[in-house]
Amino acid sequence: MAEKRLEPGLTIHYQDYNPNGSPGVLLLHGLGATGESWQLQIPALIKAGYRVIVPDLRGFGKSTYPGGRNNPKIMAQDMVDLMEGLALEKFHLIGISLGGTVALELVLAEPEMAKSLVITNSFAKLRPKKISLWFFYVMRLILVHLIGIETQASYVADRLFPEPGQDEPRSAFRDQVSQSNHRGYRSTMRSLAFFDVTSEVGEIQIPTLVITSEKDTVVPPTSQAELAELIPGSQQIIIKDAGHAVIVEKPDEYNQVIYGFLQKQN
Questions:
Q1: Long-range CB contacts (< 8 A, 24+ apart) of 111-115?
Q2: pLDDT at position 144, please?
Q3: How large is the average pLDDT for residues 225-232?
Q4: What is the CATH number of the domain that holds 228?
Q5: What is the pTM of this model?
Q6: Which of 15, 65, 58 is nearest to 37 (CA)?
Q7: Does residue 182 sit in helix, strand or coil?
Q8: By C-alpha distance, which of 173, 180, 192, 225 is closest to 56?
Q9: How many angstroms separate the CA atoms of 165 and 169, rounded?
Q10: How many domains does the chain have?
Q11: How many angstroms separate the CA atoms of 115 and 119, rounded?
Q12: Model pLDDT, residue 162
């Protein structure tokens, strides 16, 4: 794993796979996860000839947290700085959940950098209509602020991977969350409650794909459909019988979807 110091107290750790490949693909992970969450996509992208950049966002995994606010806009600027430092000024951008919000902010800030955009199980604004989802979000906030990040990780892992045969991904997710900086995690979670780019995403002009898991219990599919409607010319694909962690649950189907989309943009 490589690292890049972006500012005092902030070092971004990342993996740079197939450095001679082209074009580049930047993969952005979800809340509490790390770049390791993309391990089932990386080999397929390398095989297709892409250069694959997989960072840990600030405060997550092995990337440091310098303190202060932590939100998608700040993380997006980190990624701009990272990619410019790698001399990758034009690349495909793929984000899931939190990573999707970071990807949106990056494209809005630097519209010329991304060749295309893939947003998976994410949103422009998160305002669920179901009381059960509000309860889930509130419980996460209570657990992470008052009890501890590890307990919150177990609570979320059980929702992401509820089946008896999902012990391995459930454990892997808990391990990834445990690497997070606790203050950075809490700040990021709070920021998502106020995240709202609904008035801005209509400016996005690059080819955009919104991937939605049919059985996502973390980000409502209705919120994802609203995002797709707001981005001009975007396409939405629904992956059947998949939950929020689709990149782990349905990796082959997910890889086929992103490969088909990226190939059209090269």
A1: 111/203, 111/204, 111/205, 111/206, 113/80, 113/83, 113/89, 114/90, 114/206, 115/23, 115/90, 115/91, 115/206, 115/207, 115/265, 115/266
A2: 73
A3: 96
A4: 3.40.50.1820
A5: 0.94
A6: 15
A7: helix
A8: 180
A9: 9
A10: 1
A11: 14
A12: 81
What is the extent of the structural domain holding 186?
A: 2-265
Q: What is d(CA 266, CA 256) in angstroms, rounded to the nearest whole number?
A: 16
For residues 224 and 123, the answer to whether their CB atoms sit within 8 Å is: yes
Amino acid (one-letter) located at 255: N
Q: Letter for the amino acid at 120? A: T
The two structure tokens encoding residue 21 = 């490949």
Question: In which element (H, E) is residue 92 found?
Answer: strand 91-96
Task: Please say if the pLDDT value at position 54 is more than 90.
Answer: yes
Task: Report pLDDT for 246.
Answer: 96
For residues 188-217, give the mean pLDDT. Answer: 94
Q: Quick one: which H or E segment has residue 13?
A: strand 10-17
pLDDT band at 42 (very low <50, low <70, confident <90, very high): very high
| pLDDT of 27 | 98
